[in-house]
């Protein structure tokens, strides 16, 4: 869950889009609209973290750059939500499709097999890069 540090609401793909100020800090669009102010006949958005002013674009806060990394994370979470508390299948489940619960490691994989060392050490010294 990715959230705005001002309002602690999760970013979304509509009113709480993650917008980036010139200083690089990111906040939701709704909070930045509330911070938009006029000083010396110029509209500014003061960063709540570092106090650097960002001039408000002509179209308002909605014209600030999206924080693309955060936006893509929010979009991915919306497109493919994670299942946090997945219940185990039981015998009362109807239908022929039941999940198999893996309780032990499959045979033939990583059982007491140690790959040979790529850089074998001589027995003469402490671990180092040269031997």
UniProtKB/TrEMBL annotation:
Chain coiled-coil ranges: none
One MF term in the entry's GO annotations: zinc ion binding
UniProt KW Cytoplasm keyword: no
Annotated RING-type domain residues: 4-51
InterPro entries (UniProt xref): RING_finger_domain, Znf-RING_euk, Znf_RING, Znf_RING/FYVE/PHD, Znf_RING_CS
Keyword Metal-binding recorded: yes
UniProt-listed CDD domains: RING-HC_RNF224
Keywords of the record: Metal-binding, Zinc, Zinc-finger
Signal peptide: none
Protein name: RING finger protein 224
Organism lineage: Eukaryota, Metazoa, Chordata, Craniata, Vertebrata
């Amino acid at each position: 869950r990715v959230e705005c540090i001002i309002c602690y609401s999760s970013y979304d793909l509509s009113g709480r889009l993650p917008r980036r100020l010139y200083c690089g800090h990111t906040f939701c669009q709704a909070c930045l609209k509330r911070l938009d102010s006029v000083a010396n006949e110029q509209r500014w958005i003061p960063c709540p973290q570092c106090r650097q002013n960002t001039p408000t674009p002509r179209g308002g806060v909605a014209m600030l750059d999206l924080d693309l990394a955060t936006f893509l994370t929010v979009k991915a979470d919306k497109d493919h939500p994670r299942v946090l508390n997945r219940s185990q299948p039981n015998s009362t489940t109807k239908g022929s499709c039941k999940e198999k619960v893996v309780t032990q490691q499959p045979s033939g994989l990583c059982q007491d097999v140690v790959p040979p060392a790529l850089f074998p050490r001589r027995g003469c010294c402490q671990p180092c890069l040269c031997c």
